[in-house]
Specification:
The protein is α/β, with parallel strands linked by helices and 391 residues long. It contains 14 helices and twelve strands. The protein has one domain: Thiolase/Chalcone synthase (Peroxisomal Thiolase, Chain A, domain 1, 3-Layer(aba) Sandwich), CATH 3.40.47. A ten-stranded mixed sheet has the order 3-2-4-7-1-8-12-11-9-10, with helices on both faces. A two-stranded antiparallel ribbon has the order 5-6.
Length: 391
């Protein structure tokens, strides 16, 4: 389908950029002396190997980390690459969806041939506080919030007040994530989690308990993108970028316009419109689950259920293995890994699921996935639609 200006409006005709390589670095608790750049480089080399390409092919680099001011420059020096284009946009956990959009634009304009997106963090080894130091906020810091947890607890408490969401609903998200993680050999958590255990876990910032909060791990990942015409001749089946969008709404949680509605409501609609799909089209949803309330908010805002119905939706078993919607099949930030800024890992799992590489956790017939990133305290949101395209 072509519009009057000659531009393709069908996702299957406009799929001009594809992911051709995807890999994690070592995850969990890395060896002493490991740096974030070590992890970015390790993941980059693995992703290039996955694509059947080498460092000599890379001419665009995109990365961000909270631990290094000049992340892209540091990685390029480490790898010995001299890209034609590069960017280190830092938007928290949604940065990598934004990097993907930037890489697509550069590839489509002919500014590069092969783009690398990478991330690495040693936040478990050096402590979360050292990896992501908090800035002084004159309106919030005097009240001594435990950030970011207290900010997400405010959103959860408001959702409970407005819609009757319960701690059992929140715990159901954690239990579903653990069920998926038990099928992932590299997931941090190795033991089953019952609803009763989740509810009985230590309170951290009411109403969020320990099991409502993400892991604190080291780790990283990388993706390799190229134009669709080249992608078809590489060693792995290409996964096409069909749509993307980004949004920011606030920096501090006290300035969030509505604690129960995130920017995902805007980015999801825009990314799906670009891709020409609807929420009912997806085989997989990879949602940034730094906290259990995130999953509920994003399910609602992306259109998988109505606003206020996220709690009963997850409690029904809909997002657990065997449910009606596969969500966070790697185990998520709650049970798989969460190295500070988690968005790139969402994209890696989506790519692997569409390729059919996920073993016992594989979603049958997975051809269309949405990956949604979140940064700050529900501050920045970015959505990417990925899919298989058949000739």
């Amino acid at each position: 389908m072509i519009d009057p200006h000659g531009l393709s409006t069908s996702p299957f005709e406009r799929a001009s950029v594809a992911v051709v390589g995807a890999a994690e670095s070592d995850l969990g608790h890395c060896a002493p002396g490991t740096s974030p750049v070590d992890l970015m480089a390790q993941a980059s080399l693995r992703a290039l190997s996955d694509a059947g390409l080498g460092l000599k092919d890379v001419d665009a680099v995109f990365c961000a980390t909270s631990q290094i001011r000049f992340a892209t420059t540091a990685l390029c020096e480490y790898l010995g690459v001299h890209p034609r284009t590069h960017d280190g946009t830092q938007m928290g956990g949604s940065s990598f969806m934004t990097h993907m959009a930037q890489a697509c634009a550069a590839l489509e304009r002919g500014q590069c041939e092969v783009a690398l997106i990478a991330y690495g963090s040693t936040q478990r080894s050096v402590s979360r506080a050292a990896a992501s130091p908090r800035e002084f906020n004159p309106y919030e810091t005097p009240y001594q919030p435990v950030l970011p947890i207290s900010a997400y607890a405010m959103a959860a408490a408001r959702h409970m007040h407005e819609f009757g969401t319960t701690r059992t609903h929140l715990a159901s998200v954690a239990v579903a994530a653990r069920q998926w993680a038990l099928m992932n050999p590299v997931a941090w958590e190795k033991e089953p989690l019952t609803l009763e255990q989740a509810l009985a876990s230590r309170m951290v910032s009411s109403p969020l308990t320990l099991r409502d909060c993400c892991l604190v791990t080291d780790g990283g990942g990388a993706l390799i993108l190229t134009r669709g015409d080249r992608a078809r001749h590489l060693q792995k089946a290409p996964v096409y970028v069909l749509g993307f969008a980004q949004e920011l709404s606030h920096l501090s949680i006290s300035n969030m316009p509505d604690l129960t509605t995130t920017g995902a409501k805007i980015t999801g609609l825009a990314a799906m419109k670009m891709a020409g799909v609807t929420p009912g089209s997806f085989d997989l949803a990879m949602l940034y689950d730094a906290f259990t309330i995130n999953t509920i908010l994003f399910l609602e805002d992306l259109g998988f259920c109505q606003k206020g119905e996220g709690g009963p939706f997850v409690a029904s078993g809909a997002i657990a293995p065997g449910g009606s919607l596969a969500v966070n099949t790697n185990g998520g930030g709650l049970s798989y890994c969460h190295p500070g800024m988690y968005g790139l890992l969402l994209l890696i799992e989506a790519v692997r699921q569409i390729r059919g590489e996920c073993g016992v956790r594989q979603v049958p017939g997975c051809e269309l996935a949405v990956a949604h990133g979140n940064g700050g305290v529900l501050s920045t949101q970015a959505t990417v639609v990925l899919g298989a395209v058949h000739d």
